[in-house]
Amino acid sequence: MKIAILTTDNRDYERDYAAPEPRFGTAPEALLQGLAQLPEAEVHVVSCVRQPVRSPKIIGPNIFFHSVVVPKIGWMRTLYQGCIRAKRKKLGEIQPDIVHGQGTELDCGISAVFSGLPNVVTIHGNMQAVAQMFGSRIGSFHWLAARLETLTLRRTSGVFCNSAYTEGLVAPRTRKTWRVPNALRCDFFNTEPKRAVCQPVLLNIGGMLPYKQTVEMLAMARRLHQRGCQFEMQFAGDRAAHTDYGKTFARELAKAESAGYARHLGTLNTAQLIAAMDAASALVHFPTEEAFGLVVAEALARNLKLFCAATGGVTDIATGAEAAELFKASDFSGLEDAIARWIREGCPRPTTTADTMCERYHPMVIARRHLEIYREVLKQNR
């Protein structure tokens, strides 16, 4: 089976055109790791960039990479007309059996449905929900993305939904859905999870944004410290220093660092992230909106204790996971009491969640499910 995966090359997003290798989002990267182990699949990855980049033609034993240059005028300002046409031309050369658009945040989903070929789309972030959450004004990027998302969902053969939450948002707007979670990258399964031997470390991973509630978590950490709990809270991710929320986080973090109960680790690569998880005792993840919650599954794959808001796809991931504790996204009092109790009990960590995550989210498991759905779609199209 010849498959075309339309996804974003992060070199374009990061304006790092000198980098020699394409970089993908964590979910598409993990899927490609799984597909690379299935010899019956021939995979062609197609990405748009604003400037030419040097790239390898082959990025896996059965995976080929194609980079197409689209000037700025061909992106959102023209509703991705340049991207759609450039990818349609490249797909005409490749002649895949099926086209899979990875996400509706940029051009990938809408390029898939206008490819003229059998196609499916994966929802990674729900743009309609994001636009509503931010109160996006008419004509803004998220307002337009939400409307292009609805157009995409109406035209595709079906949508991969990474959680029950996503499926509930998507199902009324498309003809067919499949509940297929995101895969975790192989790195999280290649080594045995290690156990922390230092003082309890509470780890929070993600950008310092209002819906991530990082400032509120710092306030909760301060109250725990005042109660006499011995721990360190570590934050990893973009500090968003240019935003008012990021500046507030920086001020509160400085106080916490001075008192000795919190610090910021910076933005971590995969190896650093796994090391931080293995050095931690628990993940604290408390967003008000979450399509899937990949970092939650990654932390459970390293046998971390989980304290989490019961938001979006997180509930799916935590169901059946040993010792996972979920709360309403506004229940910081309940979160604080649960963490204090856990610290008093000696910070026990689960021992079975790594096996559970491997059974559910290993790249091979998710890749095989993709092939099953591709065959279903092609059968229906015939």
Q: What is the number of E strands?
A: 14
Instruction: Give a short account of the largest sheet.
Output: 8 strands, mixed
Could you say which overall geometry the principal axes of the C-alpha atoms support?
Answer: globular
Determine the N-to-C terminus distance: 15 Å
Structural class: alpha/beta
Question: What fraction of residues sit in β-strands?
Answer: 15-25%
Order of helices and strands: EHHEEEHEHEHHEHEEHEHEHEHEHEHHH
Numbering strands along the chain, what is their spatial order in the largest sheet? 3-4-2-1-5-6-7-8
Write up what this structure looks like.
The chain has 382 residues and is α/β, with parallel strands linked by helices. The chain has 15 helices and 14 strands. The chain is globular. 41% of the residues lie in helices and 17% in strands. The strands form two sheets. An eight-stranded mixed beta sheet has the order 3-4-2-1-5-6-7-8, sandwiched between helices. It has a six-stranded parallel beta sheet with strand order 11-10-9-12-13-14, with helices on both faces.
Which terms summarize this structure?
single chain; 41% helix; 8-stranded mixed sheet; 6-stranded parallel sheet; alpha/beta; 382 residues; globular
Topology:
Elements: E1 2-6, H1 10-13, H2 26-35, E2 42-49, E3 58-60, E4 63-69, H3 81-94, E5 98-102, H4 108-113, E6 119-123, H5 127-134, H6 141-155, E7 159-161, H7 164-170, E8 177-179, E9 201-205, H8 214-226, E10 232-236, H9 244-259, E11 262-266, H10 270-279, E12 282-285, H11 294-300, E13 305-309, H12 314-318, E14 325-327, H13 332-344, H14 353-361, H15 363-381
Parallel strand pairs: 1-2, 1-5, 2-4, 5-6, 6-7, 7-8, 9-10, 9-12, 10-11, 12-13, 13-14
Antiparallel strand pairs: 3-4
Helix pairs in contact: 2-15, 5-6, 8-9, 8-13
